[in-house]
Amino acid sequence: MTEARESAGPYARRAPGTPCWVSLMAHGLAATEEFYEALFGWEFRPGPQQLGPYVRALLDGHEVAGIGQLPPDRRLPIAWTPYLATDDVDQTADAVRLCGGTVAVGPLDAAEAGRMAIASDPSGAVFGIWQGAAHLGTTLSGVPGTPAWNELLTFETASVAKFYETVFGYEEEPVVSAGSDSVTLHVGGRPVAAIHGVGHELPRDRGPHWLTYFEVADADRTLRQAAELGGRVLKPAHDSEHGLVGTVADPEGAVFSVIQNPH
């Protein structure tokens, strides 16, 4: 996981398949901004409005994430969604459809920032596709308040990993662990995301979904703070091979994990 946390300059074009941005669609934009400002220290400025009101979250002047207001007529989940880089969003959207996925939004231009689509894999997990122009993605990583990792929680890895491998050209590396059904996705030999098959442990109300991890300085303190701000702790902080990890839902129910890396 830590190998994927290299700092990306504002003009670094991401290799196809690399998670380059995370975006949240919520009902109450102002209240959502307040929650994440208090939790991660984010500031906000307006972004492209193609799907309605949208802001970009900044940390020390660097763009790290986006939050949009969910249009009443769109049945998108209230969830953090990773955007995967592509050199041609229209071609990638066609590949998604050919491989059994669904394209729910787009492809469409997001002003001068780039071109995007929102899709789901054959199991129903939602992800974004981003062809960057003026905006290539997150410009800061490796510090508290920035996206650190993305992983897909699904029923089983075999078929869905094949989908992502075919659409984005990932190299797969099975995780060798007793009783574990996990695959790490690599781009150019570097791990960029993971797929975990958890079978019936998937939440019934969510189904297969992508989970974003944000780096924090103190996982226990962040979880306590999230609860005080109106969120819910779903998994208390616990040790993992990559550091202390916990999972929370924000006040509207968007789920994300936090990771405190050992330094």
Write structural notes for this entry.
Helices cover 17% and strands 42% of the residues. The protein has an 8-stranded mixed sheet with strand order 2-3-4-1-5-8-7-6, with helices on one face. Strand 10 (171-174) and strand 11 form a beta hairpin. It is an alpha+beta fold and 263 residues long. The longest helix is centred in the N-terminal third of the chain and has 12 residues, at 29-40. It has 2 domains: 2-132, 2,3-Dihydroxybiphenyl 1,2-Dioxygenase, domain 1, CATH 3.10.180.10; 147-260, 2,3-Dihydroxybiphenyl 1,2-Dioxygenase, domain 1 (Roll), CATH 3.10.180. It has 4 helices and 16 strands. It has helices spanning 29-40, 89-98, 157-168, 219-228; strands at 19-26, 43-46, 54-59, 62-69, 80-85, 102-110, 114-120, 126-132, 147-154, 171-174, 182-187, 190-197, 209-215, 232-240, 243-249, 255-260. The protein is globular. It holds the Pfam family Glyoxalase_6. Residues 18-132, 146-261 form the VOC domain. This is Bleomycin resistance protein.
Short description:
17% of the residues lie in helices and 42% in strands.
